[in-house]
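debug: dumping io for the single-chain case to check the tokenizer round-trip. Nothing else runs in this session.
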Amino acid sequence: MAKTREAAAPPRTQGDAADLTEAMVALRGLMLAGDQFRHAAAAYFDVGLSETVAMSHLSMAGPLSPREVSDRVGLTPSTVTSLLDRLEHAGLTARTPPTAARSWSRSPSTA
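debug: decoded output
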């Protein structure tokens, strides 16, 4: 069996290192801006940071079951159920009717 030879990466230059450093600094700045936004959103809506993470997933993905939210945010299902109840009580999510394929779902509030 013949071995395929992988193409060697071109040698790195000092310019490549500078570009990489610049990109890393820009990425760190973007991540910090995202953190600041999340904190501001939590304060504005009077919720915790975990709630803002769940709200982000719901706004991007649309209706999700509590299990799906749990899988996405890395919290236990019981914790997510309480979190979603708090968001619903605050008017930030709304339950949608169950479908044949899943249990109750949550979607971002349109209010």
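debug: round-trip ok. Strands lie at 93-96, 105-108.
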